[in-house]
Amino acid sequence: MQQEASVRGEPPGKAKMEFRQGSALRQLWETNLEVFQRDKMALFGLFIFAVFAIVAVFAPQIAPNDPLTPLKNNEGDWIKDAMPYWLAQPGEDEAEGYVNNFLLGTTNIGRDIYSQLIHGSRSALLVGFSAAAAVAVIGTVVGLLAGYYGGWVDAILMRAADVAFGIPFIPFIIVVSAFLDPSIWNVVVAMAALLWRDTGRVIRSQVLVIKEQAFVSAARVSGASDLRIIFVYIAPSILPLSFLYGSFAIAWAILTEASVSFLGFSDPETISWGFMLQDAFNSLALSREAFYWIVPPGLCIMLTVMAGFFIGRGYEEVLFPRLRRM
Amino acid sequence: MTILSIRDLKVNYATQDGTVQAVDGVSLDLEEGQHLGLIGESGCGKTTLLKAIVQVLPRNGEIVSGEIKFQGMDLLKLPPAEMRQLRWREIATIPQASMDSLNPVQRVGSQLTKLLRVRGGYHKKAARKRAVDLFDMVGLDTERLMHYPHEFSGGMKQRAVIAMALALEPSLLIADEPVTALDVIVQHQILEVLRQLERELNLTVMLITHDISVVAQVCDSVSVMYAGRIVEEARSEPFFTSPAHPYSLGLQQAFPNLARPRDVLVSIEGYPPDLREPPSGCRFAERCPFVQDDCHETDPQLEAVGDGRLAACLRSSEMDSLRIQAEDPTLWQNVEVAQYPHPKPLPHKEGGASVAETNGGTAASASPSLPVGEGAGGWGDESSDILLEMNDVSKQFKIGGGLSGLLRGDKEQTVYAVNNISFTLRRGESLGLAGESGCGKSTTGKLLVKLLDASQGSIVFDGDDLSAVDDRELLGFRSRVQLMFQNPFEALNPRFTLYRSLTEPLIIHGWKDESERLQRVVETLDRVNLRPAEVFLDKYPHQLSGGQLQRVVLARALVLHPDFLVADEPVSMLDVSVRAGILNTTRRLARELGLATVYISHDLSLLQYTCDRIAIMYLGEIVEIGPSNEVINNPQHPYTQALIAAVPVPDPTMENPPLRIREGVPRPTEQFIGCPFAQRCPEAMEACLEIRPPVIGDERGHQAQCHLYGEHRESPPLNRDAELAR
Prior knowledge:
heterodimer, A: 0% strand, B: Rossmann fold, eight-stranded mixed β-sheet
């Protein structure tokens, strides 16, 4: 019944749309808009990303100190393990010969934790977005080609996906890091090399469904080329799926980067939240109850990962409306 | 004795966009032994009524008011546990698509005995005996009890479902579209089973369907539902001879009928009212050709109109004269009359003259010449302009091969989809391809538009062999050949506006100028009767009804002004009331544009209505081809004879003859030395198994591929038992 009603005539309350050509890009924009209009959680996720993005861009301006240079007091000694100024004993800083204006204190070699946190957002977002982009792009292309062309193309790509599914992820990254120079890009390379598998599979299945629909045959009968069919007819329908997997990939990448850094396979010259945690762990911050060193990077990781999943959820609800009723 | 009595039943569905009053004040009485047919188009509340009776409404459905009494018990006041006891034991239902309701991992027999033991209290042995009896009753081999559902064909599954429904000897059987989606021969056999059971068991049946011919064959009384109400109630005979409601009148004229073909089918334009806010007056008023001012204000009630029937129409007193008026197809809004009379190439076609008089007479005299097919004698005329030639075309598919097949160890199999078919098509001619599902008719359609390439043989389109075209020539071919699809809801890109969908072919074929494109699109929409065209340009497919969508699909096919159109089941997904409209438009435009058309359909009456010639396909071969009326009225091939005999006639006085054909289409992976139909053929002879039947034709181009007419016609008949024993 409901279907019947919605098929016929104008849906109530829907204003008459102005005449336009409805380009694929515009369609895509509308789908994206719909995601964030419908789902306030997704909007919140977007807001988190926006805040971190601004912080990352203006990190040198926002951070009071250089994150890697140890701070020194009047006598030229490192200001080790200073408490945040709101925790420290009043007068202690004067006695040690410095002014305590550290929001989150300093590390065991006198680096400013707050500045590290600010700069950490740079590597987090860099890794997150570039890995997500790589995963989404590779996965989408693989899915489109395998699904559309089928046959041997499909067989080869999907067997490659099987291989990728068979490789354990974290050990793979460790091996990659061992071969390459330490760099945050190792995570991106490793993710791009492995995680396209999920995106590719899902998109392939979707392409298989769309490909069989009559409007694609209609396009072919009209003389549309393979490329036109792939990019004008099929791609717009599956791009929201790529965005879905892309936003999940952001979260995974940030999480992975943190894990890899925590395991000590990161570049010591680049500050990331995972690196901060590892640093804190190695210098026994836990035993000194220096929560101000451990909690903030953890919180930041959690927030960005959450943001990725919130946005992903938003896409899921628009793509699979049945989830909404659950 | 009244078994079921419904009084003023109202059922609402709560939806996001408001409350849908799906059933709105239905009253109905069902006597013991009565066979009631409930007909109406989709969305009129038939299935909701069924669900309300057995109380299995979806969660958002609610019975607002009314009374349902079954053998004196008020079902609405019955506790759920007792209602559960009633279902199946007293009220058995065969739900829609029930063939899929068999459990795929259990043997059919054990599903049946389990039902008998759990619900019926049978003992093990008694249950087994009863299962055997039931299978016998519905005409299934009792060995089949040990089989799994996937080993059953569609018709066999439907028989098994009927057996299960009747297992506990219910007093009432409600069947929802029991034969929809079945092939015509299977449909015929199922109807026969139902008819026979009605007689033997004195069953009370309520049959829900959209197909009035099914009702004519199985039911003795009819209720017509429209927009949540019953608008007419009558015994079958008066209903089919003289319907008492304008909607029933329209439905009858919308149905093609093999026995009494109509020259113009009517289409009830428009669609049912929005049941969220039903109109205050008559619900059919908007689509009714006899509408008066007070129809919009006064809500007509069901009233006795003589002959023991009831109708809800303000003008029912004038119905006798309205019925005569309704015979005139131009009365129904938007009836399209072909610009040129439908060419009847056969001189002896009865009623051909009347077409010209009533419909096309003036138009034909106004137009200087017919584009094609002037008069008789065109068939086999070699000089006429041949557009398309199929020469011994075959198509095979390989299944189970490839890398994954290799790894899994599947053996590669070949499906022989199309085998050595040949025919020619002239400009402006229409050819129908008919046959059961899986006979290769859709594959042939795809070969014709080069969505698939032929494995063997050649397809020559306007002098060019399709297997040898280069890319540029292919693009030229694409602009001249178009395809119309079965499912209009899938045939348009849901993300494109209609303008975008229609302009795509033009862009592909290099129409650079936007305003020219717009002009062509508007012109084409206008052609297919979507007016004013501008309103439709910025709509999305989901905003249109099925009938409108199919017009858009037609418009997209015509936007490039092609020479050749393949229509694959163009109306099978649409409601009966709008089918004729699409067919009429297609037929008119084919005439106007001199378009050659191939219609693919399982519905012979529809093909007879639209096509000059009909080809009957069986297992990838054309077994008979010829002028439509010749093939329908004088079928030569036993398969064609069976197909035609199986089509239900919308006339309760005419019972379809029993079929002699055997069930079960062979697998398309089989290859035959002799005639592929021999296994099922009632006329089969020894020669049929060994020798390919010859193609025998007459001078009018009516050809059949059968030994009955060839040199082996004296071959001794096949001994079935001996064959079975092998």
